[in-house]
Amino acid sequence: MITGLGLWGIIMNVKRLKNLDFVILSSLVVILVMSLFVLSSASASIVSDSAYFVTRQAMWIFIGLVAMVVTISINYTQFARHNRLLYVLNLLLLVSVLIPGVGTEVNGATSWIRLGPFSLQPVEFSKILMIITFANFLVAKQGQLNTFKGLIPCFLYFALPLLLILKQPDLGSSLVFIAILFGMLLVAGARLGLLAGIASAGLGGAISAVVLHLKFGMPLPIKQYQLMRLLVFLNPYADGKGGRGAGYNVIQSLAAVGSGNFWGQGLGKGSQVQLNFLPEHHTDFIFSVVGEELGFIGSIFLLSMYFLLLYRCIKIALNSKDMFGSLIVIGIVSMFTYHIIQNVGMAIGMMPITGIPLPMFSYGGSSMLANLIAIGLVLNVNFRRKKIMF
Amino acid sequence: MDKKETQKRLKIFVFLLSIAFIALGIRLFYLQVVMANQWELVSENNTLRTLSVDARRGDIITSDKKVLATSKPVFTVSIMAGISDEELDYVAGSLEDILQDESVTAEVIKEKIDSHSRRFEPVEIKKLIPDEPGTWEIITKIEERRRDLPGVVINEKPMRNYPEEQLSGHILGFVTQITQGQLEARKEDNYRLNDKFGQSGIEQAFELLNLEGTKVGLRGKKGLYQVEVDVHSRIVKDSGIILPATPGDNLELTIDYDLQKAMEQSMNEVISGLDNPKANAAGAVLLDVKNGDILALASAPYVNPNDFVDGSFNDSIVKNYYNNSDLAPGFNRAVQGVYPPGSTFKPITAMAALASGRVDTSDTIVCKGAYWRPPYIKCWDVHGTVDFYKALAISCNTYFQDAGYKAGIDEIDWVAKDFGLGQPLDVLGISGENKGILPTPQWKSNLGSILVDREFERKKQNLEKEYATKLAEARTFEEREVVLAQKERDLRILETDKKIQYNFNTTWQDFDTFNTSIGQGSNSYSMLQMANYVATLANGGKRWQPHLIKRITDPEGNVIKTYEPELINQVGVSQEIMTETRKGMVGVTSPGGTAYSVFKDFPADIKVGAKTGTAQTGRRGDNPDEDFHGVFIAFAPADDPQIAFAGIVEYGEHGGSTAGQIARAVFREYFGLNEKVDSIALYK
Predict the structure, then answer these.
(1) Candidate from A252, A254, A330 with C-beta closest to B31
(2) How many domains does chain A have?
(3) Domain span at residue B94?
(4) Whole-model pTM above 0.90?
(5) A294 contacts on B by Cβ (under 8 Å)
């Protein structure tokens, strides 16, 4: 049952209002405002109407903020009651894109569904549903996470949605799921040695599979060009095409970030962006725009904002009144953290190229909406950290 | 799980988060602070393209400062390399619509781009000449559609232009786009694919040469300008010239504009007045006898160098004209062509005869219409009693055969060689010179033995073949023996025949001397050599190196190099002999002489020394009794010679009425006789 506290109620309740974390809110506002400025510069070279992307993004931010407030207004403990329903809803969401006629194929992956004038990416919302349902699942499994055997149900719980995502195929998002899984297990109390062991076995296994494939031709379930795309960040010039081959995106991104120098070229003045040498610079490679036009100082500032936001979130997890709340927050922190490291890392040649957006920054309605809902959930947990006496 | 454990876990989380963010920060520092310059360079290389600006090619002017070759500005439509395939499809289609030129279709454009190997350099699609119709419309259309035509640029460029059209076309040569071979050969001179390169004549010789360690030439040095392009190679900003081009050096020729013009005009008039359908070519040279300056040098049919630079050559009529092997317009008849001199050789024979001491000017012979020694080569008339002067004036074959016989071939060869016949002249700026043939006993021996050997080998091989079949057909041993004996006998006959042939074909015969004496046989010289010989005879034996280039000046007009007259040799024939010979040649233009009619209206103070020639062409397929080249040599004024002429009109038959008319026209121009006529005409 949803408590009678509506939006109005929250605002009127001064006692609760002070529970709102203003550090999170202000860093969020800074990130969002910065994203609009950077987007306006980045999109100027894509469409003749430079306001097109910015207007749409602003609209999504508005919708997202409304959704965030709505999310805050629903007591998160209510979600636990409908856990099974939410899990099934999540699966249905992921299945929907795979149904011909419902899912739309973009760049070789069916990740979108059309809803009237908008296209939505179900996987963005699926992440949040997964976090809520898995948090509830883990609360029930408290104390049973010290053995490998005990972890198996957790993996199985994750496996179903993960397989559906890989079916799209969307490698980037499935890695986000794995990051969420490990982040939440860590805080839920799984044995540290065990987690570290599994993580290194997984990573080691993947690396050795690639090495075996490259050296001895061991078959892998992905196509050669996909593998090259993943590995090219190690040496963008490796294919001998003088930077015009598989390494092109990485090189152009590095050139953008590098040429930004300490102070940046100035908003709207980065040649890599404005002359379109940098591909996908309003979505996946938006951080490179920050790097080129706002320089080292701007990049570090943006990263600091993210760090501040995440740090405060962890604080909220610490102060949550229950484990369910902590796990929800940690799931969301894990999701954001992975997104940021992956997206920024890709732009600066530290991570392989997998197209996932920079949270609350890249252009894209679904991800903006889902991320603001996620922030709403975090604030929700903070809001109800202590029993309120009426 | 207790609160403490959760706290610990969250601390681990914060720790891992911090490490990840610090790693990102360090990497950013490395990229944006430590390595920034390097990545800036990559970014600049993306956008900044340095393009070359063509240098204005140097001018070529006559000695009287008339411009023969210059450059005029044209517009070029080019496509920046690096354009994507889909865009190219679109751009090529649009350009085809705009240009409306059958030779520049979308297919042609695409092929040009595909075959272009150098990235970052625009590929020239079409040249637009400012004063031609349609040019401004095309430029306006392209400018209007700029946004739809990514990578298309219009540039102003100098284009070679020859304002006098075909005048002195053979001397000038022309420029075209550099060939692959030239590109590789001139690698160290920084030539590029789209560059122009001199392909013949002066344009080729003075393209770029090393003069005492410095590079001089018509080419000049390219400049550089910079543009900023986007990822589609559209130019977004013109950053301007960063290194201005240096124009090429200018050349001043020894050619005199009016004389050259007079020579070419009269050449064309003479040719068009001839009935023989084969008569369509001529070549002539006019030298300054006092220093070797080439005052005029022409060849017909004409070459118009503009046809090769303005695209006219793509027209099939123009192309067929230049590719017509019967006309061979590109062949320079004055230098590359060698011809039997015919009677114009007789002054050499005359000098050799006098120099031998065995003939005196007063000695006479009686011409009965043919020489009295075998093979009794005919004279063209029956001249009766003939002395030295009369022989030259009437061109008596009988007299010169006998004079040659008395002088001997060695004496003739010595004199001819001394006057430069059969010797290469290697004139700076003239390429493809043919040195001709001065027949000597040694020459005949070398050539003859090769020919006889070749013929013997051919016959021997036929014999072997014939007997191989006969042997194969022989059925019994006896038959084989008979066949082998026959073969042995036939081989011996063949060898005997070879010895006879050898003797006949390699040993100098008397009739070889006779033929040489009258300028027939194997004699063949270029008109440049002939003019050089006449000039040497005219000036009293100073053989000056003929030269075409007077000086090279830099773009500011400073003289880089002046080519001074150069004496090759002083001939060994005495002044007296030359004086007598010149006197004889004046007789040619005097009443009774073979060229009397040519110069009879010249003022009395301008006497002309000349010699006519009617030479058997010696060409395969020609009728030796009907087809003759008209050859003519002359110098003037006879008292103090200044200029010397040699010319040929192919199939012109009579030297005086054909090549002589060219000499007449040029001499009239030189001595200002045309102006007098003109001024009289004005007052009428």
Answers:
(1) A254
(2) 1
(3) 69-248
(4) no
(5) none
